[in-house]
Specification:
With 581 residues, the protein is an alpha/beta fold. Helices cover 37% and strands 15% of the residues. It contains 25 helices and 18 strands. A six-stranded parallel sheet has the order 2-1-3-4-6-5, sandwiched between helices. The chain binds thiamine diphosphate.
Length: 581
């Protein structure tokens, strides 16, 4: 059997029906083998970066493992942003790159290159992968594939890269002779000190759950635990959609761009269950001593390094899978609900006083982007997925969308590459096979960066609504420039040298239906309802007309509750539970 055929058989066995990639000489054997498969299809994209993000989308759907392929040299290097993104946001993806023949490869010789398009991709991606290896011997193919998949999926998930020379791809093997991989770490579990957890909860009057992206596979037990104990919940950006946001227990999203009510909740909790989160600076702010300063933190993260090297003071930290921890919490801890009643009623008052709606009423001139989020929250389908890009559009969505139980929200937290949303939506859409309606939300900048991926929407009639929040600027950076650079709009506005293409013409050149929604109609539910009744892809340009601002925002060196625009001192101290006790 040819090695490339064996690889395809293996991919089929991983519940993967689509491989995203861009052809080139060094992966032609693999693409040829896929083309002969009845179970897996090669989706030829229009930029390797699109393939790298689409494979993440495929994995993030939970429907199967994402696979991605690119040729040696420029094909492989074009994958790097996606590989790094999957690494920082813990998404299991198998990236396969073609390589020059082993007899052409330079190995450790001090020359720059021997073969055409030869590039040592393995050394380049090592710091942003869980595992990356050049498969030099055909006999190792089964072992390396099984090892790669196991590593990608186990523990804290992440990307792996297999670099496969052309002569290995075309070599002949007998599958019966190949050795497999045996996971050596199968049963390593860190014990949880339940007495300690119980004690901390029983001493607490103001408990709060902070759910991070690691709870995305633990939605049911998170809800069960929170409801059983009536513990209010805040989420991080990556944790958004892990808890139903129409629940009374939900307070909001925390962090540098968190909802004000959620940051205030965090500042006043006396016990935080921080689960499936690495407590990064965008969550804690830079003034670490103010983070949960009136309380204790139980930190649960599957990655033992995050537990060991956290910058945040924790009172109990354990490396454990979020679903295992929360599942056991449901059985092993119990709290007298009357003890936390005052905290819950305080939080519901804070939630209503410092909701995103009130924030917008008070502090935002151009309300259109937030009105848009209100409308999308109201009319989007029960099982809609929101794939969200980077910039102000990301924060409008994260702060403004109120998600229901079965809706999903995917964005990039650690790497945050503009141009992420549409390719991500493409991968998800192939995995979902029309089951979910998908919105890709992007700014004009991120949209332009990923324009070529629009081809796939019309080519495969993918049910993706691309919503472009067109403020004709790189809005997030303009906001930053206004804050710290005296409003010098270098490289971010038309004056500064940044231009936006004609979005309608772009949609037309990719044969996509197009609608424009003007600023005054951004919150018009009827318009959005009408848009969602149309099946298939569409580009919807939301013309935001005027400058846009994200609010609230935590400035550098500020305590987590003291978001800008700042509340009057008196008002803030009245808002603090701890100010009253
Ligand atoms: C690939 C990449 N380049 C640069 C940045 C830095 N950056 C972050 S947000 C942003 C502006 C985004 O502008 P746009 O896509 O128009 O969205 P808006 O902020 O206006 O909603 C930039 C340049 C980035 N995150 N990714």
């Amino acid at each position: 059997m040819k090695v490339s055929d064996y690889i395809v058989q293996f991919i089929e066995s991983q519940n993967c029906r689509y491989v995203f990639g861009y052809i080139g000489g060094a992966i032609t054997h693999l693409v040829d083998s896929i083309s002969k498969s009845e179970n897996v299809k090669f989706i030829q994209v229009y930029h390797e970066q699109t393939a790298s993000f689409a494979a993440e989308g495929y994995s993030r759907s939970g429907k199967g493992l994402g696979f991605c392929m690119a040729t040696s040299g420029p094909g492989a290097t074009n994958l790097i942003t996606g590989i790094a993104d999957a690494f920082f946001d813990s998404i299991p993806v198998v990236y396969i790159t073609g390589q020059v023949n082993t007899y052409e490869y330079k190995y450790s010789k001090p020359v720059r290159q021997q073969g055409f398009q030869e590039t040592d991709i393995i050394s380049i991606v090592k710091p942003v992968t869980k595992y990356a290896v050049l498969v030099e011997k055909k006999e190792m193919i089964r072992y390396e594939l099984e090892k790669a998949v196991n590593i990608a999926r186990s523990g804290r998930p992440g990307p792996v890269v297999l670099d496969i020379p052309m002569d290995i791809q075309r070599a002949d093997i007998n599958p019966a002779d190949l050795c497999g991989y045996d996971d050596p770490d199968k049963n390593v579990i860190m014990a949880i000190d339940w007495d300690r957890v119980r004690m901390m909860l029983s001493d607490s009057w103001r408990p709060l759950i902070l759910a991070g992206g690691g709870t995305s596979g633990a939605r049911d037990v998170l809800l069960k635990f929170a409801e059983k104990q009536s513990i209010p919940v805040v989420v991080s950006l990556m944790g958004k959609s892990c808890f139903p946001e129409d629940s009374d227990l939900f307070v909001g999203m925390i962090g540098s761009y968190g909802n004000r009510c959620a940051n205030i909740a965090l500042a006043n909790a006396d016990l935080v269950f921080a689960v499936g989160t690495r407590l990064d600076t965008r969550q804690t702010g830079t003034k670490l001593d103010s983070f949960v300063r009136n309380g204790k933190i139980i930190h649960v993260d599957i990655d033992p390094f995050e537990i060991e090297y956290s910058r945040v003071r924790r009172d109990y930290a354990v490396s454990c899978d979020a679903s295992v921890f929360l599942g056991e919490c449901c059985d092993k801890v119990n709290k007298d609900l009357s003890e936390t009643a005052e905290w819950r009623s305080y939080l519901s008052a804070i939630k209503s006083e410092y909701s995103q709606k009130k924030e917008v009423e008070r502090n935002i001139q151009n309300k259109a982007p937030y009105q848009l989020m209100d409308a999308l929250s109201a009319v989007s389908e029960e099982n809609a997925v929101f794939c969200v890009d980077i910039g102000q559009n990301q924060m409008f969505s994260a702060q403004g969308l109120v998600l229901k139980k079965n809706q999903l929200f995917f964005t990039s937290g650690g790497m945050a590459p503009m141009g992420y949303a549409i390719p991500l939506a493409v991968g998800l859409s192939f995995a979902e096979n029309n089951f979910r309606s998908i919105c890709a939300i992007a700014g004009d900048g991120g949209f332009h960066i990923s324009t070529q991926s629009l081809m796939l929407l019309s080519q495969y009639n993918l049910p993706i609504k691309v919503i472009v929040l067109n403020n004709k600027t790189l809005g997030m950076i303009v906001q930053f420039q206004n804050l710290y650079f005296d409003g010098n709009e270098a490289a971010t506005t038309c004056r500064g040298g940044y231009m936006v293409p004609d979005i309608q013409s772009l949609a037309a050149s990719y044969s996509l239906p197009y609608r424009i929604v003007h600023s005054k109609d951004a919150g018009n539910q009827l318009i959005w309802k009408d848009i969602f009744t149309i099946k298939g892809p569409m580009v919807i340009e939301v013309d935001l007309s005027h400058p846009t601002i994200v609010s609230p925002k935590l400035e550098v060196n500020m305590p987590i509750e003291d978001l800008s625009p700042k509340l009057e001192k008196d008002e803030l101290s009245r808002a603090m539970f701890c100010g009253r006790i």
